[in-house]
Design brief:
Length: 206
Amino acid sequence: MSLESLDIKEIEAAIEGILFASGEPVNIERICIATELDRPTAEQVLQRLGDFYAYERRGIRLVQMEDCYQLCSSPDYADTIRRAFEIRKTAKLSQPALEVLTIIAYYQPTTRAYVDQVRGVDSSYTMSLLLERGMIEECGRLQVPGRPHLYRTTKKFLRDFHLSSLEDLPEMPGVETDGQLRLTEDGTILDPRELNAEEETPQMTE
């Protein structure tokens, strides 16, 4: 299906209406079903729509977060919007919160025990704050004794840090890991950096 064969303005208006009505991130597949478009065509229309908002310096932006899209207010007018609704400016994340968020972002899904191990301090209070602010969420349990909760970052994390997906995270220097947890037979969580160091150490042979 080509864009030339479609009424682009009508399709753009329909997608704009879907996103506005939702108020939350909308998966691209849902948009395709509603508009009867194939995914490449829908993505082209969304790209056009997003470019229009940015080029015309509109008060809204079209934000992509992995396979989802959402209409958000432009950060250029954040102060004006806050004054209109008497919204207090969101408090910045503390250094401990940024540390916890960084660990979860790069090593997700991960457990609180792993975060504590990397930081060397108890992170329960900081993680509860991040949960309240919607930056992280529970995503299951680890299949080891005690079955601790697993945590991952949310779409709000992507939106607030202006990331389209986790692949946009900057590479961690000196760390090469698949991001998965590694455990010993007794359930001890291994730091991927230590694991890589062991794998890179030449083994002596007799």
